[in-house]
Request: fold
Amino acid sequence: MTAKGDMVYAWTTSCDIHGECGGAVTALLQHALASGMVDAVLAVCRGADLYDAKLTLITDPAQMPKAAGSLHCGTLLSAKMVKKYLGGARDMKIAVPVKGCDAMAFYELAKRQQINLDNVILIGLNCGGTVSPMVARDMIADKYEVNPDAVLKEEIDKGQFIIEYTDENGAHQHKGISIEKLEEEPEGYGRRQNCQRCKCKVPRQADLACGNWGVIGEKAGKATFVEVCSEKGAALLDAAVSAGAVATCAPEPKGLEIRGKVENAMLKLGDKNRARQFAELGSGRERLEKIMKLSSRCIACRACIENCPICYCVECSTAKPHLVRPGQIPPDFMFHLIRFAHIADSCINCGQCQELCPMDIPNALFMHAQQVELEKMFGHKPGYDMTMPVLSYAEEAEERARLNATGSDMIFENVFKE
Reply:
């Protein structure tokens, strides 16, 4: 029997699953579905090509193998999809493989009662970062001098972005370039900016945290390193082992040490990138002026609002004509100030507001820089537990009704009245 805090090497026993690092994650998800622990798995599958990731709801265990394999050029965020299209998992049980930012989004939505986390099994995936699809294509053509359509597989390992591709003679080749070197290029290659700043590399908020870091010896490339992070995760792993779906063994002691070193190196790189990117943004009035200048490209398409996991209001204040004049392009700066006030203390640095902005406004940088400062001031660290930020205690529907009925924005009784 396993317990929270245990660590094992794990691999699938099925010859039908051809996943990364032994296929343990796919096998665990398949067992959760086949055993009835969950009603569905929300998986990331390959779409038209390697650069097209799509969320797929799988209810047939036999379909799980198609979700095997990593897609570092997939920049989706699963939590908002569960809230918008799957009823917040209130009436169904779902298993979801999650990156660090996905896991953080699940917690932020759960603490706001937008997702029922009791009905969700989170399988965390160690994440060194993701690459925007078009950037990946340009980078592979330019820096690797390889046709992007000839790439069979990509991975981030040992500090490199590595591709496996078919050359002009039909032979399989490998090529890797240092992530740091790619990200130093003026073309903006490498991982997304928010991924460069990320410090949630091993998502221990999930029920299980899985990856290849720390798998050495004869199991290297053939097994997944699994850290048990909750009783729910322990139950799934034990059940999969008992059913013969997954096999495990103790990790190599040296592997534990290597895993820790890899994670620490990634965290230090995150600190370095935060310092650099925040410094480029400036501080004080300089930062404000830069944000105002860059956000003046805004066309009010609202993609940042629609895709932010923290934005879930029934009635968005940016649509209030007395706050933001309708029809103005670019919108009044109040449009952005409202978003900052609403989200900044809980920003999880998922990057969706920047990734999906048609005007290439670095929205995630603005928001994350403010979140880091607010965390220093108030101590709230979003996305790691069910602790609420101060401004989240008011229920939106109740406050809207009270405001409309009284015309007052005073939440608390006026203790100074005579």
